[in-house]
Specification:
The complex is a heterodimer of chains A (92) and B (477). Chain A is mainly alpha-helical and 92 residues long. Chain A contains 3 helices and 2 strands, in the order H-H-H-E-E. Chain B is globular. The chains are: A mainly alpha (92), B alpha/beta (477).
């Protein structure tokens, strides 16, 4: 059962914030969604969980240096640039 | 007009590449104010590309897609052209590189008309979660296009491009193709590189094609498929020509009809798809009743797996390196949370919350691991069916296109509507959707043909045969 406390905890883990009204609405939606997801709990056969088998690990490209994009090009999509670097908020 | 016919007209100089591009751009101007299938129209770039293509044609060096006007879904990166994922988060994002699929089209001098509308981050089945407003269905503009590649399907149906690139994680190429009365091909996982496709659920995502016919989808697939060293999941198989079986005798094929897919579908949908089964029976095909018992778990398993992967993939959108950044936030954590609160729409938040919930230590085994077990089971059940059948026939969706706003605030109703398409992604198989009838309101009904892994050629041929004998109605635009 999803309650507002659990929604707030999941929001914290998800790096999302909600207003009190949004939190209430999200709790209702998540309760309905989880009720649908509970269907999988009825599945009982003991078979191996699927793991992606599409990668041939013998055929990976060589781990070697390649030219990449210039710093200027990479920084084109941010407005917060200083000294050829991303500007980030103060962390400590 | 098919792509092959367009190719002939371009090569014989009956039409010019610039004239063709201008013709499509004119139609976009006339019709897309209502259809809203494009987020970005690339008028200048398209004319430039068409001029280059004409030069290639004039030199007699044309390749299959030289000068062909195509639209590209807005979650596929295009160098120098903004790629929004229909999200405020990427509203002004301009990629610095082309997706491999786009690079392959460019290598043939295609003409890109623009970037098409979609559900935000491809999460949805109506395209109404787009930050830019949803597209409308060319058959009835009060109705949804389906999704998430709704703009791609609508652009083809409304004659606003000759073909379109879309992406399919749980039915996002096939379902909108069904709703908009066109053909949509989702290739086998690993056929087309995902390099440059903005990731939603990496073990399920696959770039696909929307076009006016099965043969046209295969014609485009011929160009975009293949191994890519930037995507370790791409197959190294050389497939040859995907249209090579078109026109061949299909009367000896066995077509499986799994009963579970017809439970809970609208009567008109069920009748139209079963009528298609009768058509194949009259051709001489053997219709085999079969079963996929785990279908009842499929929607939940799909949403748990795709949301878990999405929660991880979308953690990169923090407003620091690129994309939208909130103006509000005293510290690092607050800034990130506000950026994501303001940058993502409601449905994307549902998926991130669900994905993180499924991956939490207390719930991991009951939800995520069980979903992965179901994935194994569904793959096994498909393998069992393919021991007896060559292709599988099902409805593409339980209903036809519904009215805009009808399911907007009911995520559970939206999720359960994916029942007919998600198992194909879960099993990594190829499938194609085409129109097999119309409901009492004239809206298209879609049927899907699913094939064995890497056997796109057979489903294209089986679909093509039906299309050539079926009277497809153009939309009224």
């Amino acid at each position: 059962m999803f309650d507002e406390k659990l929604t707030a905890h999941m929001a914290e883990l998800s790096k999302l914030s909600f207003t009190p009204e949004e939190l209430t609405a999200m709790t209702k939606d998540m309760t309905d969604i989880i009720a649908l997801m509970d269907t999988v709990c009825d599945f009982s056969p003991e078979i191996k969980p699927y793991a992606l088998d599409a990668v041939d690990y013998e055929e990976l490209r060589k781990d070697e240096y390649q030219d990449s994009y210039s710093t200027e090009k990479i920084l084109e999509n941010t407005e917060n640039v200083k000294n050829n670097s991303f500007v980030v908020p103060k962390v400590v | 007009m098919t792509l092959t016919e367009l190719r002939k007209k371009l090569d014989s100089h009956e039409i010019g590449a610039v004239e063709l591009a201008q013709d499509y751009l004119k139609k976009i101007k006339e019709r897309d104010a209502v259809i809203n299938s494009y987020i970005t129209v690339c008028e200048e770039e398209a004319i430039e590309m068409a001029k280059k293509a004409q030069g290639v044609i004039d030199r007699g060096e044309a390749k299959p897609l030289t000068g062909i006007p195509v639209s590209v879904k807005d979650n596929i990166c295009t160098d120098g052209i903004r790629t929004t994922c229909a999200s405020r988060m990427l509203e002004d994002f301009v990629p610095v590189y082309d997706a491999t699929a786009v690079a392959k089209l460019k290598a043939e001098n295609y003409v890109m008309l623009g970037k098409t509308n979609m559900d935000e981050f491809a999460m949805g089945g109506s395209s109404q979660t787009s930050y830019f407003g949803g597209p409308t269905n060319p058959y009835n503009t009060d109705c949804v296009t389906g999704g998430s590649s709704g703009g791609a399907a609508a652009s083809v149906a409304a004659g606003l491009c000759a073909a379109a690139l879309g992406s399919d994680t749980g039915g996002s190429v096939r379902q909108p193709s069904a709703f908009c009365g066109v053909t949509g091909l989702k290739p086998t996982y690993g056929t087309v590189s995902r390099w440059g496709l903005i990731a939603f659920a990496s073990s399920l995502d696959q770039i696909g094609v929307v076009a006016n016919s099965a043969e046209d989808t295969a014609y485009v697939l011929n160009t975009i498929y293949g191994y890519d060293e930037n995507d370790a999941t791409t197959s190294q198989k050389s497939m040859g020509d995907y249209t090579s079986m078109v026109g061949e005798d299909i009367s000896k094929l066995k077509i499986g009809v799994p009963k579970e897919f017809f439970e809970g579908t609208d009567d008109e949908v069920r009748e139209a798809v079963l009528k298609a089964a009768d058509y194949y029976k009259h051709l001489g095909c053997e219709i085999v009743e079969c079963s996929l018992p785990s279908l009842k778990y499929a929607v939940a398993a799909y949403y748990l797996i795709s949301s878990a992967e999405a929660a991880s993939n979308l953690s990169r959108f923090d407003g620091i390196k690129y994309g939208y950044r909130s103006n509000v936030g005293e510290d690092y954590n607050e800034l990130i949370k506000n950026t994501r609160r303001e940058g993502f729409g409601n449905e994307v938040k549902h998926r991130i919350m669900l994905g993180n919930y499924a991956l939490c230590s207390g719930y991991y085994d009951a939800y995520y691991n069980n979903a992965r077990r179901i994935r194994t089971q569904i793959r096994n059940e498909y393998s069992a069916i393919f021991e007896k059948c060559d292709v599988i026939l099902t409805p593409t969706a339980p209903t036809t296109a519904y009215k805009i706003g009808e399911q907007e605030n009911d995520p559970v109703k939206m999720y359960t509507a994916d029942i007919c398409t998600v198992t194909v992604n879960i099993a990594g198989l190829p499938a194609i959707s085409t129109t097999c009838g119309y409901d009492k309101n004239g809206m298209p009904i879609g049927m899907s043909l699913t094939g064995k892994a890497f056997d796109e050629k057979t489903i294209v041929a089986v679909c093509d045969k039906f299309e050539k004998d079926f009277d497809r109605k153009e939309c009224a635009l």
